[in-house]
Amino acid sequence: KQEVTQIPAALSVPEGENLVLNCSFTDSAIYNLQWFRQDPGKGLTSLLLIQSSQREQTSGRLNASLDKSSGRSTLYIAASQPGDSATYLCAVISGGAQKLVFGQGTRLTINP
Amino acid sequence: NAGVTQTPKFRILKIGQSMTLQCTQDMNHNYMYWYRQDPGMGLKLIYYSVGAGITDKGEVPNGYNVSRSTTEDFPLRLELAAPSQTSVYFCASSYRLTGETEAFFGQGTRLTVV
Fold first, then answer.
1. Distance (Å, rounded) from C-alpha B43 to C-alpha B30?
2. What 3-state DSSP class applies to B27?
3. Which of B99, B107, B108 faces A52 most closely, judged by CB atoms?
4. How many CB atoms lie within 10 A of CB B97?
5. A35 contacts in B (CB within 8 Å)?
6. SS3 label, residue B85
């Protein structure tokens, strides 16, 4: 059974810092890994999708990496801004299953 | 370009009542999912469907039922609502399960059972 873990559960940093969010998964046989952002009381917004054959994806100040063999992904946020405050969720689609499995998320607060 | 649409956005139910949460997607996606999210927690899969006429249970299916009569629609039925079903419900869809598949989510239905 695929299990996804995100560390830390919460993170608070001052504006302008670079930061890393971590995601680990137990079964390396995945199709892809997707990072989402969720604002309070809102739905999920897709940030980045990394296919199993890829090592990283970039979008603006966001960079996501994938090390499938070790079951790990990181989301790097450069030059953080207060508007980045949200919960960040990672999810994987396993090769053997037909569904997205989510981690519990990291609640990020960027202090002005 | 509507994407995934969920209705209603909010609902309060009394214990023992029933209701249907609606989900529609206009992207011709094969796969559709229902998740619930409890406060401070990740998303747990309730039911999913890989195409019209095919559904399967996820992690937490008890107390729920689904149907998939068309590609576009995937309603979630709550029978005999209980306080434990107070949660935010999200519907999602994806085209197919390959490396380039991206999942899209609705805005959620916030359900309170009192």
1. 21
2. coil
3. B99
4. 19
5. none
6. helix
Short-list A4, A18, A32, A34, CA closest to A108: A18
Q: What is the DSSP string of chain A?
A: ---EEEE-SEEEEETT--EEEEEEES---EEEEEEEEE-TTS-EEEEEEEETT-SEEEETTEEEEEETTTTEEEEEE-S--GGG-EEEEEEEEESSSSSEEE---EEEEEE-
Question: In this structure, are strands B43-51 and B31-37 parallel, antiparallel, or unpaired?
Answer: antiparallel
pLDDT by 10s per residue, chain A, length 112: 889 999 999 999 999 999 999 999 999 888 889 999 999 888 899 999 998 889 999 999 999 999 999 999 999 999 999 999 999 999 998 765 668 899 999 999 999 9
Residues of A with CB under 8 A from a CB of B: 4, 6, 31-32, 34, 36, 41-44, 46, 49, 51-54, 89, 91, 93, 98-105
- Whether residue A75 contacts residue A21, with contact meaning beta carbons closer than 8 Å, is answered with yes
Parallel/antiparallel/unpaired status of strands A10-14 and A106-111: parallel
Kindly report the nearest CA distance between residue B37 and chain A, in angstroms.
Answer: 10
Residue of B nearest to A88 (CA): B42
Q: Summarize pLDDT for B2-58 with one digit per residue, the tens.
A: 799 999 999 999 999 999 999 999 999 999 999 999 987 889 999 999 899 999 999
